[in-house]
Amino acid sequence: METLWAPWRMTYIAGDSGAASPPAPPAADEQATPEAAPPPATGCIFCDKVAEGVGADARNLILWRGTHTFALLNLYPYNPAHLMIVPYRHLADVTQLAAEELAELMAALQRMVRVLNGVYAPQGYNVGMNLGRVAGAGIADHVHLHLVPRWNGDTNFMPVVGQTEVLPEALGVTWARLRDGLAATP
């Protein structure tokens, strides 16, 4: 599947709610500090990104850091603002997550939905986990939750006919918009 970036489409998809200019990314000193020390680098893409520290959050598309989990944009999104919520602990088995990790995962999901509602006003969401390679997990060794905003008209014939997804907004613009939304949303 190829990706065709078409940022001009976002105005059409979002309608009147998405026509405003996106904000500039925040400076490194304006970014929140994590409440817990990240794990050391392990070779896992999630663990390695979070281990680089807060100063690398914009480059790594990390939107938010909590005590047990963090949220980041999907580098290969199905739709604009497709993000993932990931526990810091490197686990493949969702049944091994502690109650505190599960609670924060769900609280983060709620907060990110509020942020997406305020920033992008989607008309629906897909939320889920792919547990195991045969279930479609691209990163099967580290549990993560996908949150995909959906709009009427966000899909077209391109994935079926051309094996191409059309994405209407650059990841850096999405990151900046959601970081501003996070700052304004409890």
Number of strands: 7
| Fraction of residues in helix | 25-40%
Radius of gyration: 16 Å
CATH class: Alpha Beta
Q: Oligomeric form of this entry? A: single chain
* Tally of domains: 1
The main sheet orders its strands as 2-3-4-6-5
Count helical runs.
6
CATH architecture descriptor name: 2-Layer Sandwich
Describe this structure in words.
It is a single chain. The chain has 186 residues and is α+β, with helices and mostly antiparallel strands. The chain has a single domain (2-184), classed as HIT-like (HIT family, subunit A, 2-Layer Sandwich), CATH 3.30.428. Helix content is 30%, strand content 18%. The protein has helices at residues 9-14, 45-51, 57-60, 99-119, 158-161, 171-184; strands at 2-5, 62-65, 69-73, 83-87, 124-128, 145-150, 164-167. Strands 2-3-4-6-5 form a five-stranded antiparallel β-sheet, with helices on both faces. It starts with a strand and ends with a helix. The model is unreliable at 16-35 (pLDDT under 50).
